[in-house]
Amino acid sequence: MTSAVRTLRRSVPVALGLATLIVAIALLELLIRIGWVNRFIVPLPSQILASFERVVVEEGIPERFLLTLREAFSAFVLLTVFGVGIGVLLHRVRILRLATETWVAAFASAPTVLMYPLFLVIFGRSANTIIMMGFVAGLAPVILKTVEGLAGTRRVLINVGKSFKLTPWQLYWKILFPAALPSIFVGIKLGMIFALINIVGVEFLINFGGLGQLINELAERYDLAGTYAAICFVILVSVLFFILTERLERWLRPAN
Amino acid sequence: MAQTGQLTHPSVRLPALSRVTLLRIAIITTVLVIWEAVAASGLLFRDVVPSLVVIAGAVVSVLSEPGFYWHLGVTAGEIGTGLVIGGLAGLVVGIVLGGSRFLSRAFEPYLYYLGPTPKIIFFPVMIMWFGVGSGSKIAMGTISCFFPIALSVAAGMRQIDDVLIRVGKSFRVSTWQMVTKIYLPAMRAPIVNGIRLGLGVAIIGTLLAETKLSNRGVGFLIINSYSTFNMPRMYALLIVVFVLSIGVNALVSRVGNLEAIKVR
Fold first, then answer.
1. Of A211, B12, B47, B112, which alpha carbon lies 20 to 30 A from A173's?
2. pTM score, two decimals?
3. Tell me, what's the ipTM?
4. Looking at the predicted structure, is the pLDDT value of residue B209 above 90?
5. Does A91 lie in the same domain as A133?
6. Residues of A with CB below 8 A from B117's CB?
């Protein structure tokens, strides 16, 4: 009984949120139909819904999706290797950390995506530019969180390792690294969020590649319903990505 | 997302500070020497890695152009307007969602998941709604900064000490007084943090929109130097933009810190 009440109590707000969304969409449809909102600026929601299938089939969404996914995966590999590598280096060489950690933090707050014209010149209008933009955008959080995780290892654990006379290598692999793993994962997650934002953004900006380019192309063709549908699709994909990484994080993190 | 963007100073101050400074100088010198060597060697395209002297000259010439300040003013105006609109909307939405557990459960997931999507993809729609001029850039700045500010304020609302709220209630203050006398002062730190995050993404949103379609603003200058293949000028503009935005970011977080000290 109580659990049923609790589920009810939880589902009421969720239902309200969904209902509001549906009512807002219906209201928009109505306003466009009576002419209060210009249908050449905002297409009918029913039209957007109808054009989903057309966009998916005719514009090759699966191939574009795979292309964006491949770019994201390359950026992920680069981020993990270099981000965690530099993080470990900064943690091992204390003076290097003291000298450069503020720089890395400042770099994290810099609008790195603005360098895309520069990357266009260096790497050409290709997937490499997009991958490198994603990599640069996500690097700082991975480094910072790796250092944070390694430095935050509990003293007791290190002492236990030392009392077992572990070699520095063993100490790293058996104690420091596992202890830092949750923090490193948070760093990679943050880095990948920044990387994905930039990958799709740069695809849109330089009109090359996967999902981002699709929006640009449809907008330039003035295919209104298609543009809105493509934007909705990209949002859906990114929301799904965040939900998945959150699940993954919860699954990886030891219960505490 | 909150911690990474923040300028954190190394908490431990060692007596070896001078050694740290020396190392910093050594790193910078090494990078500059390698850069100059690559530029002089001609191994890479000359224009991709221009000599430091050329870049420095370009920085000086950009900063001494009166036209540059006009473009900077346009961009600053767009970012500022976007931040005001998006910030106020974010503040109101954050207070409403943070104040009610029910509303937060109903609507906050949408904000939470929409927050980290790439905002630039809305740009074609913003052009249709607000035109190709400053309007669409302000709109980009607004939707960029709305999400971090709203989420940060909502989280801040939930962290307010219950005692403060009960004191307010026992004085039977009105809702407006509750907001201005209790909520806002108690949430100073999360609000400043939200503004810092929001400002960062508003800068990115506005400048990117300017590089995509515009005829004024710093973003336009950057993409224009790309179209005319004026690499030293592009480097100079990027350096100026980076220094300005990192500086503004540090300034805002410093303001937040000072206020936090006063509260204690």
1. B12
2. 0.85
3. 0.85
4. yes
5. yes
6. 197, 234-235, 238-239
